[in-house]
Amino acid sequence: MPDKDSKATMDTEDTYGGKASSEPQNLRPRVFHSIKFFVLCHSLLQLAQLMISGYLKSSISTVEKRFGLSSQTSGLLAAFNEVGNTALIVFVSYFGSRVHRPRMIGCGAVLVALAGLLMTLPHFISEPYRYDHSSPEDMSQDSEASLCLPMTSAPAPTPSNDSCSSYTEAQHLGVVGIMFIAQTLLGVGGVPIQPFGISYIDDFAHHSNSPLYLGILFAVTMMGPGMAYGLGSLMLRLYVDIDRMPEGGINLTSKDPRWVGAWWLGFLISAGMVALAASPYFFFPREMPKETHELRCRRKFLADASSPVSKGENSPSEQNPGESLKKQDDLVQIAPNLSVIKFIKVFPRVLLRTLRHPIFLLVVLSQVCMSCMVAGMATFLPKFLERQFSITASYANLLIGGLTIPSAIVGIVVGGVLVKRLHLSPMRCGALCLLGSLLCLLFNLPLFFIGCSTHQIAGIIHQPSTQPGLELFPGCAEPCSCPSDDFNPVCDPSTRVEYITPCHAGCTSQVAQEGLDKSQVFYTNCSCVSGRGRVLAGSCDSACSHLVLPFILLVSLGAALASLTHTPSFMLILRGVKKEDKTLAVGIQFMLLRVLAWMPSPVIHGSAIDTTCVHWALSCGRRAVCRYYDHDLLRNRFIGLQFFFKTGSLVCFALVLAILRQQSKEAGDKSTASSPGLEQQRLMLGPKKQPEDSSV
């Protein structure tokens, strides 16, 4: 019967409209009847989708500076990608076999591309970026506007108040709202892409080729986050208003803390890639003919059903392929007949039964802890590196995309190879997970001590060992009328003291000197500098920027060890639940990971980062972006959160291993005579409830 159905399907699909179709009409869709071409298209689409969904994480600090967002708000923005995804992912399992899957994938990809374009809209509807609010234009006079002026000749502070109109506030809220809507649509559009694509490949590929195709799909897909950080590294080197540069140019470099890169350009490029990758899906058929290799192998298996099956990579169920194929066909027939009401009734019961399984629950909790760590690190590690080691956003993304992401990919691959080559049992999979978590935790400890303390900032951070005479906004700048919301940092190279503006340093004039590459701006006649010396434009350089490489190497090694647990923990879930509940268990696993990890973790990390801020920029009386952090406190709290989640994962894997040992011990104590009775009891319980449960 399977051969007849497959042959009939192949006859109708190959002719694309029947035998009466002419040859020219049959040639055009021939490539769209190849599962290999579908795998190629789907690999490129998922690569582009992960690029556009991960790109925001590479430019999170830039978006904060551009629109005056706190880390908590930016973390919530990053988490909104999972809101729409989580709300709809359960229904995908129900409608999976009832819709035209390639077209649904194409529609979802088009929605992702539109969401990416919507993310760029705030750039075009907002006014040009003003990195110095003390002057009306971002030209060369912005440096002079920050100088120390006598109170009698200083301009009135009314312009900054005028900018706080109700229209400005409404525009700011509208811009932020657009980004939240775009992130939600980005998650909604990504719902059908991966589940429908994987099921489509598994349905129409030969069962021995399906693992190979899925392996290729995941291998190409895993490069997406790394490419997102690489794209961010390139785009953030460009100025944000590259499409509308002021006439006099800008006096900023990428090392300036006021620099904002072209964050929107990456979304534009990624959206174009997604739209291009989505176009072939509207030409794939609803049902594709099985591969020729599939039909030959099936005939061979049916003809040699009595002969022993050679050992391979497949499960033991292949020992009776005819029965297995018939069983799969029965399950396929049952699932479409399940109504929505019956699906809703069955789902909670199977959900509770799955969650009551201790191995499943503990493994999922360990994965939740690990995903919390990964989500926080992926979202805020670039910003952490920028602040902790005083490096540019472009360089931070380059380090993460070039070292950390490839290390995580290697860890996933090595974990899969160990499980396959060593034929690890569930207990050994648990031991491997425990070992990987323990080593990851140990490599996390040195990160508490690798970092830079905050240098002295006049009026904000005081280092008693350097200049005990400095106090809050020193009296040397009292004759000046310095605006409180201005930000144009300068550095005294002799004492390594940083001032918020030249005005706060008491400087009355500026001098530009031509250097080897670019002109260097100095501010002279500064009353707060010894000997009324000069200060250098820009923040003080960090004394320990060289430590960023050892830090990122330890982070990458920890990421590889954490990723080592991915495949064995997944195998623990598959082997720990009933066979008819495996599909639903995997769906529940991903749903819990989104709800408990990927959604709250960026907000938790962002809130922890905000608590380490020592100087906030104010916009219309509200806190906007943080300009200075306590670096030691930032490092301890950020790495401390990572340590907390890694410890939770370690404890869960330890409990899993203890339960597996207990089960193994109990199974060994039982007599061999009880095994047939136990198997008979399982068979007696199965046939009545299996069709209803497996249909989910």
Description:
Residues 470-530 form the Kazal-like domain. With 696 residues, the chain is mostly helical. The protein is 61% helix and 5% strand. The chain has 25 helices and 8 strands. It has helices spanning 2-15, 23-27, 35-58, 60-67, 71-95, 101-125, 141-145, 158-162, 166-189, 193-204, 210-221, 223-235, 263-278, 292-303, 321-334, 340-355, 358-389, 393-421, 426-444, 548-563, 566-576, 582-598, 600-610, 631-669, 674-694; strands at 456-457, 490-492, 497-499, 509-514, 519-524, 535-537, 613-619, 622-629. The strands form 2 sheets. It has a 6-stranded mixed sheet with strand order 1-3-2-6-5-4, with no helix packed on it. A two-stranded antiparallel ribbon has the order 7-8. It is globular.
User: What percentage of amino acids are in beta strands?
Assistant: 5-15%
User: What would the average pLDDT be, to the nearest integer?
Assistant: 78
Give the strand order, joined by hyphens, for the main sheet: 1-3-2-6-5-4
- Summing up helix and strand content along with how strands pair, one would put the structural category as mainly alpha
From the spread of the alpha carbons, the general shape counts as globular
Count of separate DSSP helical elements: 25
Radius of gyration: 30 Å
The largest pleated sheet is described as: 6 strands, mixed
Q: Helix coverage percent of residues?
A: 55-70%
Task: Give a count of the beta strands, DSSP E runs of length 2 or more.
Answer: 8
Q: What distance separates the N and C termini?
A: 25 Å
Flag low-confidence runs. Answer: 1-28, 134-141, 152-162, 294-336, 464-473, 682-696
